[in-house]
Records
---
Amino acid sequence: MSASTPDLSALIRERLPPALQALVPPPCLLDMQGELVDYEDGRELRMRFPVLPRYRNPLGNMQGGFIVAALDNTIGPFSFLVAPPSATASLDTQYLRPVTSADASITCRAWLVERTRNTLHIHAEARNEAGKIVVLAQSVNQLLGERVPG
């Protein structure tokens, strides 16, 4: 990260109720070794995730669930930056091509399509190192207001 790259965890913590701040960054993001690439306030977030050998399926490609987890680990933080707290109500994905063992990482991008009173509509994509889209996703996140999920 460059000196101009914001501290994503600090930005999210500032916007969360105190009871939720201790879980930022969440263990699932730390486990996947997500790295901030770029953040444009309220518009989009890009994260990079390594394609680790433990994520491979029997064909040697990154298992689809791990690709979706990387997308979810991009959509989730982005949703909290836009309007915390929220919870995923739906996450639809379309697989376009495999992430092969030749790919060292994938880059996920999430952007806001629409915000209503109660929901965020977010689109996302994952790209391989050649810049080709491998997965498209659409998420609806339910805004929880000031309530803390329990």
---
Amino acid sequence: MTGRIAFQGEPGAYSHQACHDARPDMEAVPCRTFEDVIEMVRKGEADLAMLPVENSTYGRVADIHHLLPESGLKIIDEAFVRVHINLLAVKGATLADVKTAMSHTVLLGQVRNFLQEHGLRREVGADTAGSAKIVAEQGDKSVAALASELAGEIYGLDVLARHIEDKQDNTTRFLIMSRQPDLSRRAGKMMTTFVFRVRNIPAALYKAMGGFATNGVNMTKLESYMVEGNFTATQFYADIEGHPDDENVKLALDELRYFTSYLEILGVYPADPLRDER
């Protein structure tokens, strides 16, 4: 597939890495915010959006669950990306030259062991790729960035140390979204993502979930969040295994509809092969 895929962040960000890995034949287009990513696709200026939804270490990405239902876009794929953190410095620098490591505050917290071992001072940058860009522009051998290898390639930095993250299984899950859903595919394992609100009756959530249990549908995620800051209005985000056309999934969703005031399917897509490994 040719075309454009939008992501949030500077070139070389981990979202850019996700685009590079999952859609290598598409032009990756950086955007300032998640809202900008969504708007580019809605306007037809990009074909797909690459949006991070959760990280194995830090949980879900803030605000993303609010944006997905309102975006008007549909999930057509998921991508699991290993977060490999690297120490990047200007050409000719050595590890002995480096005194300060710059990156996003979240990434700085994921390399504590390495920083302590080498006595490096932490400096908070706007984001990972942005830190790499700053290091390249400053040209100071004593300051290095913590970012992806792709960022190093883009900004002409040397990799002084590879894969220095404390947790070797740190993984971010991304959703690939389009203006139109794709319900035609059938893979070994399909996933369906939806959001819903239960009716205001006793035990509504318990009863709504019963249909998935009785019909043998595996629910891999169920998260709640407030709607528009209202403490009494709760919306739920769910992932299940299966396709809405599967008989057991159809029966479970029919039962769910009976107990809900709102239900929207956000996407039906093949499970990433790395899902089972995670």
